[in-house]
Design brief:
The chain is mainly α. Helix content is about 75%, strand content about 0%. This is Transmembrane protein.
Length: about 280
């Protein structure tokens, strides 16, 4: 008969495979490292861009650099979290195969990585997330200010453009009506979906001629200039939207691959931590 507390040969006395205390310890450390390195990256980003210079990096360059930094953050934090989860996990006891011990240490690192991802996601939805989001929005605004300043509202022509088109001639003291400007703005806004209809163009010429007292040739020139300005503004808006789309796509892809490699690093770090635990 076996005595209580005595190890019986051939009987496995292993501990449970999942040790949540070690996993949460590694996840908390990994989350802290993530926040610390993210704050460092934000400081570097603010030092890189400035509203007082026109040589700011392009949105694509800024996004790629930020994504590379997030990859570094993910890898470093994953190593710390996985290593501590494997190192702090209690010894499994006697009777377990070496491969099973390594699997449990690796799994501890992987679960610590998953818990870290959930903790970071929770932080992003709280006040800290609002602060980090404000940092990102401010940096993006600095980078994209030159690209979006003239394309902030592509569906509605600017008031200056309409005022310029309806500016009265030198020999005329009349002022254009707000209704005429509003109608002209709606007509010009149709260029977003395609070229201006010839009938709308002729109507705009008549409208400008009636409101400003200009000769037909001068009114036609003003309308043509307004149409060209509107087309240029629409082109800039589309270019800015395309740049933002590419930046978002790059950021999402870099985030996915960084998390994928981070999970692998956490698993390897957990195995390393478990091996050193058993050695020392």
């Amino acid at each position: 008969m076996a005595i209580i507390g005595e190890t019986v040969p051939g009987v496995v006395t292993a501990r449970p495979g999942v040790t949540w205390a070690a996993i949460f310890a590694g996840a908390v450390v990994a989350t802290a490292v993530t926040v610390m390195l993210t704050a460092l990256g934000s400081g570097i980003g603010f030092a890189w861009v400035s509203p007082n210079t026109a040589t700011n990096p392009s949105p694509i360059a800024f996004t790629v650099t930020a994504a590379i930094w997030l990859i570094i953050v993910q890898w470093v934090a994953s190593f710390f979290g996985g290593y501590l989860a494997g190192r702090l996990r209690p010894a499994t006891g006697q009777g377990l195969h070496h491969d099973e011990v390594m699997f449990r240490d690796t799994a501890a690192g992987f679960v610590a990585w998953a818990v870290t991802a959930l903790l970071v996601l929770a932080l992003l939805t709280t006040g800290l997330g609002s602060v980090l989001g404000s940092v990102g929005k401010a940096a993006s605004a600095l980078v994209e200010s030159s690209a979006t300043s003239s394309a902030s509202s592509p569906m509605a022509p600017s008031s200056y453009m309409l005022d310029k088109m309806f500016r009265p001639s030198r020999n005329s003291a009349q002022t254009s009506s707000p209704a005429a400007k509003a109608e002209a703005g709606r007509i010009l806004a149709t260029e977003v979906v395609g070229p201006l209809d010839p009938q709308d163009h002729d109507y705009l010429v008549q409208l400008v001629e009636a409101q400003t007292g200009l000769a037909p040739a001068d009114a036609t020139g003003r309308v043509d200039q307004a149409v060209a300005d509107e087309n240029q503004m629409i082109a800039k808006a589309k270019q800015a939207a395309n740049v933002a789309r590419k930046a978002a796509a790059y950021f999402a892809l870099y985030t996915f691959f960084s998390m994928l490699v981070g999970a692998f690093i956490a698993c390897v770090a957990g195995a390393i931590g478990g091996r050193q635990r058993d050695t020392y």
